[in-house]
Amino acid sequence: MGRFINGLMFKNGGKGGNFDKPSLNTIWGETRKRNGGQIKKIIVGSSFMGTHLYQEMRRLQSLVSSLTAEMDVKNERMEYMERRATDLSTYLAIMTDERDKLNQAFLQLSTSLSRMTEERDQLVQAHLEEMRSMQRIVYENETLMRDLETHSRELEQQRTEIHKREAQLDIRSNQLSVLSKEVTRKLNIVQQNSERAKDTSSRENVQALTEVDDMRRKLEEKDYELDSLTNLNNTLIAKERRSNHELQEARKVLIEGLDGFGNNGTRPPAIGIKRMGELNDKPFRDICIKKFSATEWETKSVELCSLWQNKIQDSGWYPYKHVTVDKMPHEVINEDDKKLRELRDEWGKEVFDAVATASLEMNQYNASGIYPVRELWNFKEGRQASLKEVMEYILQKLKALKSVKRRR
After folding, report:
1. Which of 343, 265, 331 is nearest to 304 (CA)?
2. Short-list 56, 401, 62, 121, CA closest to 261
3. What's the Cα-to-Cα distance from 160 to each of 164, 380, 386, 397, rounded to whole Å?
4. How far apart are the C-alpha atoms of 144 and 154, rounded to whole Å?
5. How far apart are CA 102 and CA 95, in angstroms?
6. Sign (positive/negative) of CA torsion 326, 329, 330, 333?
7. Is this model's pTM higher than 0.90 or not?
8. Neighbours of 304 (CB within 10 A)
């Protein structure tokens, strides 16, 4: 392609917009065609025109070069913008996918939230039901506790009455025995006198026989009274046995309910269940830690504890002796027992005391020695817990649990 400059056509001579310098013949021909008869004037000014056109061509070439460079820069920027557009399109596609994923997650979260709301409502309802159940349990336990206290007072009164009746029976029995002996003695005297002194006046005999009849009648009355007291005593004893049976049944129920109740795993509760006749393994662990390595002390402790537990449960082993305390016979540990002496010499006093305690418990609560038995125990005072203590402890725990749930 060419370009018109000052009325003349110039052809593009190459890349970058450079134009070829026009020849005089070309200028002459073009001028002739356009202007016809002004040939002479053009020839005179052709030299000046050629110089001016050459300068203009150089300026245009510089301009074209500048424009070409600018075009290159703009092309590069256009390519950069195209790459950016491509990157943005890719990023937009990724963001669209992320948005879809977030929408899906939002839907799932909404569904989960709805489900959690339903579960919360169900838990609230269950909590209310449990609170009502706890209130019923507290009320029932309070009622049971009052009944047990009343029953215990009645039982204590019955025991007092039985002891009183037994004392009265002893007194009456002694009186009847003395009266019976006196009647027998007087009857013998009367019989002897009647045999030896048949000539005695009839009035004296009648008086003696009257005295004997009076004493016999009194003896029969006393005998009847003694039978009544005996029947009453038997009735009271039967009632005491029934009351004791009911109390034992109540203890069994509490033992079943309290087994594992309130034990946090670090120390025993104030009131709980103790397995009477079961060895405390702590002294065995302590001594084995001192005597054996870190890899075998635990195994040795278990073996030693199991060995002595089996010996305690062996009914053929009797390491006890009888002593009298306050005129009452008691069984205590015979420290001269051969096995116990060997145990104390080899493993120390703490292990000996643990075995002695468990053995005495087994002998007291399950003399057959087959297995340890559970018992309500006051761990704070180290003794058997009363029913009143157990019920107070249960009510205390229930009220504490109720207050915790109310705070939640």
Report:
1. 343
2. 401
3. 6, 30, 19, 34
4. 15
5. 10
6. positive
7. no
8. 21
The one-character DSSP state at 197 is -
Q: Which of 281, 261, 246, 282 lies closest to 377 in space, CA to CA? A: 261
Question: What single DSSP character describes residue 19?
Answer: B
pLDDT of the chain, 408 residues: tens digit per residue: 444 444 444 444 444 444 444 554 554 455 555 554 454 454 445 555 667 787 888 888 888 888 888 888 888 888 888 888 888 888 888 988 888 888 888 888 888 888 888 888 888 787 777 767 766 766 666 666 666 666 667 767 767 776 776 676 677 667 666 766 766 666 666 566 655 544 444 555 566 667 767 777 776 776 777 777 777 777 877 777 787 777 778 778 778 777 766 555 556 678 888 888 899 999 999 999 999 998 999 999 999 999 999 999 888 888 999 888 887 888 889 988 999 999 999 999 999 999 999 999 888 888 776 788 888 888 888 888 888 888 888 888 777 776 765 665
287 neighbors 350 (Cβ within 8 angstroms): yes
CA–CA separation, 273 and 267 (whole Å): 13
AA letter at 5: I
Contact 258, 390 (CB under 8 A): yes
CA dihedral angle for residue 51, residue 56, residue 61, residue 65, rounded to 10 degrees: 140
Q: How far is Cα of residue 335 from the mean position of the Cα atoms in its chain?
A: 42
Looking at residue 87, its amino acid is D
Beta strands in 238-282 (DSSP E): 271-276
Contact yes or no for 173/223 (Cβ under 8 A)? no
Report whether 147 contacts 397 (CB < 8 A).
no
Find the DSSP H helices in 259-316. 282-291, 297-312
For 333, how many CA atoms within 13 A lie in the half-sphere containing its CB? 17
* Contact (Cβ atoms closer than 8 angstroms) between residue 179 and residue 219: yes
What 3-state DSSP class applies to 276?
Answer: strand
Give the rounded distance of the alpha carbon of 187 from its chain centre: 82
Helix (H) or strand (E) holding 185: helix 39-196
Q: Report H helices in 197-264.
A: 202-258
One-character DSSP codes across 314-378: -TT---EEEEEETTEEEEEE-TT-HHHHHHHHHH-HHHHHHHHHHHHHHHHH-TT-SS-EEEEEE
On whether the CB atoms of residues 160 and 240 are closer than 8 A, the answer is no
